[in-house]
Design brief:
With about 425 residues, the chain is an alpha/beta fold. The chain has helices spanning about 1-40, 65-70, 95-100, 145-160, 180-190, 235-250, 330-340, 360-370, 420-425, and strands spanning about 50-55, 75-80, 80-85, 105-110, 130-135, 170-175, 195-200, 215-220, 220-225, 230, 235, 255, 265, 270-275, 280-285, 295, 310, 320-325, 345-350, 375-380, 380-385, 390-395, 400-405, 405-410, 415. Helix 5 links the parallel strand 6 and strand 7 (about 195-200). Helix 4 runs parallel beside helix 5 and helix 7 (about 330-340) crosses helix 8 (about 360-370).
Length: about 425
């Protein structure tokens, strides 16, 4: 009798513990399945730059990858297997890889043979044009740690193969773009005593310069040539730019700003790099320009007014204004959050889809909180049709909407420099077979 009582109590306790767990699992599974179906409809499970690739034959559905992802919503467990829920949110942290106990997941570019947006490169990031390299996010992988690693690898390859020129007018390497990839390439060139020049159309910093103030930038611990390690996993925009400025000063990096490159032509033993007012010669060229290119305009009446901008540098400069943010990506949401936190601002965000799909988990939490607090008004399923001196006009599914306006910030992406790259002779997925 005593043993039967013990078994009965154990069974009851097991049921009490199991049922809540089972109900929670069922609810989570249903949520993942619904989000997966929605993602398929929206096309957001397809590869976009870096992407998590899952081996079904190895995956055991433990959920370690889901828990490890800092972005949230990239992965989920559907019918016992890891599945992509929102691939657009993957920014390449790759924390899911070491978290998987069976090695079933890898983050990378996958098969790029049909990817028209990814240049074909070898292991040293050299294109099909000998001596011409592509590094950083232009090659498809984001994150500062990837940019640093690629800039270093490319110039080390150049250093190994360098046939130095006696002509001082011909550099061993010309680096285009002064973001983390380009600055690392310059440091590596200096380390190997290569003659080099780093050129950019703006001040050093690259994409980081476009970030809002105090934006946290994920780096993960990484080592910068000549300088040493970045120990933290996150730095503010200002702190990271301060580090790069110190590096530029300490190592006297050779940088020329105000140069927007128009063409790169291969000659017999050097490249001729031109812009509107200058030209440069170099044995090798490293392109570290980024993918954003020229800001994409909406082409609506009134867009040429001074109150329209395509980036937000200092949100604190805007107070007591009616502000419209156009776009649904991270840049748009971060701008809306920054502006909504300033005194007296009335912020609206116009997005052509029914909800935010492509944003990081942190940004989603912040914008949703501000929406609930009434500090940001989302206008989904809308398109900006006209910008007037004191208002803007939006077309929604139901009606035309006019709202007061002092400033408009447009985050519609950029026109990437792919056409120029193809003119240089660089091939993309679908253009030709991958390099050996």
């Amino acid at each position: 009798m005593e043993s039967l009582l013990i078994w009965s109590i154990a069974a009851i306790m097991g049921i009490i513990i199991f049922i809540p767990y089972f109900l929670k699992f069922r609810k989570q599974q249903k949520n993942f399945i619904e989000r997966r179906k929605e993602a398929e409809t929206l096309g957001i499970i397809k590869p976009q730059a870096q992407f998590p690739f899952i081996d079904d034959s190895l995956c055991i559905g433990c959920g370690s990858c889901v828990a490890a992802c800092p972005e949230g919503d990239v992965l989920g467990i559907v019918y016992g297997k890891a599945r992509i829920i929102n691939g657009l949110r993957c920014v390449g942290h790759a924390r899911c890889e070491p978290a998987c106990p069976v090695g079933a997941i890898k983050v990378g570019l996958g098969d790029i043979s049909s990817r028209e947006d990814i240049p074909i490169l070898d292991m040293d990031y050299q294109t099909g044009v000998p001596g011409l390299f592509v590094v950083g996010e232009l090659g498809g992988l984001s994150l500062i740690r990837n940019a640093i690693a690629q800039g270093k690898t490319a110039v080390e390859k150049i250093a190994r193969d360098a046939h130095r020129s006696n002509d001082p007018a011909i550099k061993d390497v010309l680096i285009v773009g002064a973001g983390p990839a380009g600055l690392t390439a310059a440091l590596t060139a200096q380390k190997h005593n290569l003659s080099y020049l780093l050129v950019d159309q703006q001040s050093p910093g690259g994409t980081i310069l476009q970030y809002p103030r105090r934006k946290l930038v994920m780096t993960q611990p990484v080592e910068i040539p000549l300088y040493g390690k970045l120990q933290k996993s996150e730095y503010s925009k200002e702190a990271l730019l301060e580090i790069w400025e110190k590096i530029i000063d300490d190592f006297d990096l050779q940088i020329a700003t105000g140069h927007k490159i128009a063409s790169v032509q291969k000659h017999e033993d050097f490249f001729l790099v031109k812009n509107e007012r200058s030209e440069f010669r170099a044995r090798s060229v490293v392109l570290a320009m980024g993918r954003r290119g020229t800001p994409r305009k909406l082409g609506v009446p009134g867009e040429d007014q001074k109150k329209v901008a395509y980036q937000l540098i200092d949100a604190k400069s805007y107070t007591n204004n009616h502000v419209l943010v156009v776009g649904g990506g991270d840049s748009a949401v971060e701008a809306a959050v920054g502006l909504a936190r300033q005194k007296g601002n009335k912020v609206s965000i116009s997005y052509r889809k029914s909800q935010f799909f492509r944003i990081k988990k942190k940004n989603e939490d912040r914008i949703n909180l501000l929406i609930r607090e009434g500090k940001v008004q989302p206008i989904f399923n809308s398109n900006l049709t006209e910008i007037l001196p004191d208002s803007v006009r939006l077309k929604t599914n139901k009606a035309m909407l006019d709202i007061p306006n002092d400033f408009v910030f447009v985050f519609a992406g950029g026109i990437p420099p792919f056409k120029m790259l193809r003119e240089m002779g660089i091939t993309f997925g679908g253009d030709a077979k991958p390099l050996d």
